[in-house]
Amino acid sequence: MAFNFQTFKTRALTAIIFVVIMLAGLLWNQWSFLLLFSVIHFGCWTEYHKLVGLIDPAYAEISALHRYSSMVAGWGFMLWMTDDTFNTGGIVLHEVGRLIFFVASILFLAAEVAFKKGLQPKLIAHTFFGLIYISLSWGLMLDLRGVAMSVHFDLVGWMLPVIIIASIWINDTMAYIVGSFIGKTPFSPISPKKTWEGTAGGAILAVIAVACAGHFIYGYDTKLLLMISAICAVMGTLGDLLESKLKRMAGVKDSGSIMPGHGGFLDRFDSLLLATPFVWLLMKLVA
């Protein structure tokens, strides 16, 4: 895969703006963090509905109540996963989120009965997969930012999400650069531009960079950093392939066009969607 400077320039400029927005949301406070991932959540769901509607035309015809109540149910799950720092006026957000999740879930199931005259398992399965694929991941990301998780591992609240995101970004960037210069062996027919050389090089460089930076700058546990960055490299690559498969089935190049050179929300966050649950599982296992 030959190196294309113009493509790299477009991707780099978009990435700079993207990084500024992401860092502001990640680092400002817990509310900016929630706002950032709420926007990402609804953006991913919008593109997911479009992709699955192209794959299965019946899903494109679901009622507005089904469509939006499923998105709100997922957002309710995200709120449910917040900790006690997310409270205002005596209202604890995770309690509100739990209520939203159950009410909205009932609404989208009721929508199938009311508008389709009976439950259609295939359509419900598409929505259920979206809840697992998108909402579960972002809910667990909120949990990873939680006080209990952070205190146990002596991390500032935003640090663990930043480590995960940095691992993904470094892996993606290094895989692109290494693959552009020395990549020759195709990695998967699902994503023809990926090469084994780029994939392996990106993973190795990401693991080394994250482990060294975390250990020497912040003094974090090297073994934990190695495990987190390795999971992000492996599962992030699989997440990219999963989204590529969805796009191929839908017959589109990108899931959206919000970010020039990067595509849409799912294009940008596909790796993070799959890596987050596995990092969350790791943290629970070693806690």
Automatic annotation (TrEMBL):
Keyword Transmembrane: yes
Main location: membrane
Protein's UniProt keywords contain rRNA processing: no
E.C. code: 2.7.7.41
Topology versus the membrane: Multi-pass membrane protein
Pathways per UniProt: Lipid metabolism; Phospholipid metabolism; CDP-diacylglycerol biosynthesis; CDP-diacylglycerol from sn-glycerol 3-phosphate: step 3/3
Catalytic activity of the protein: a 1,2-diacyl-sn-glycero-3-phosphate + CTP + H(+) = a CDP-1,2-diacyl-sn-glycerol + diphosphate
GO biological process: CDP-diacylglycerol biosynthetic process
Spans through the membrane: 12-31, 91-111, 123-141, 156-178, 199-218, 224-242
Subcellular localization(s) per the UniProt record: Cell membrane
Keywords: Cell membrane, Lipid biosynthesis, Lipid metabolism, Membrane, Nucleotidyltransferase, Phospholipid biosynthesis, Phospholipid metabolism, Transferase, Transmembrane, Transmembrane helix
GO MF: phosphatidate cytidylyltransferase activity
GO cellular component: plasma membrane
A Pfam cross-reference name: CTP_transf_1
Family: Belongs to the CDS family.
Name of the protein described by the UniProt record: Phosphatidate cytidylyltransferase
Species of origin: Sediminibacterium ginsengisoli
Organism taxonomic ancestry: Bacteria, Pseudomonadati, Bacteroidota, Chitinophagia, Chitinophagales
